[in-house]
Amino acid sequence: MATFSASPKTPLHKLHLKPGPQPRSHGGCVLKIIRYNRIGSTNTKAKSLAEKQAAEWTVVVSEVQTHGRGRSGRTWKSPKGGLWFSLIIRPKIPIDRIPLLQFLFANALRKGIEEVYGVQSEVKWPNDLVVCWKKLAGVLIETKISGPQLVYAVVGIGLNVNLTAEQLPTGATSIFLVKEKRFSLEKALSSILTVSERHYETLRDESAVVGDWWKHCAHRMKPVIVETGNSKTRGRCVGVNPDGSIIIQTEQGNVTVPDGTLRLDA
Prior knowledge:
By secondary structure, this protein is α+β, with helices and mostly antiparallel strands. The protein has helices at 42-51, 99-117, 175-179, 185-199, 206-215; strands at 2-4, 32-39, 58-65, 83-89, 122-124, 128-131, 134-146, 149-159, 223-228, 231-240, 246-250, 253-257, 261-264.
């Protein structure tokens, strides 16, 4: 394991994640990158560090996760060749704006992927990025709240970069499969952190954050089925709300669904 701290004179876009000076991040905070060859979960480690008052923009990245997880405790397969990292942030926002973090970092991830790899992906509710409806990446936000305040948030990101079809679960894809060549994980991390920093202030403008997400939504105005527990909602996806819920137009009228698993209605 190695820990690198940032130099205030190095711009974020020049980050290479190698020993030596590292860049200064948002709001004067020093970007610290903690790297592992293998770890249970980068989110779990980042949460532990956040509890010990680790600074905002502390990043935990690992070549392999043995217990990577996604939404609702689902397993996220994380072999070598993917980009698996977690970022600690401490935004001073009301707790009712926490769902905006999901939209913002999905937007940043999508833009970072396009900048580095030239791959155009789309966002899929609630927390995925897809290419031709195959899962390319996911975002997992975990938070600690004390009373009316957000103490910290951990942004976990998993991106399938150089993984082969044999390494991926059914319904997933990778940058390697899309572009048919292997790419640098370092450049991807640098770009995603840069874009995240650049758009961090847009948390103040929920319409811009949600609007950007909706513009690049894979199921915008399409027929979908959303399953939540034992219930199922079928209709046309007509919007999303800043609180993270989705709006489905059904035969009985518009229905707001706060959580669930979405698929296209063929």
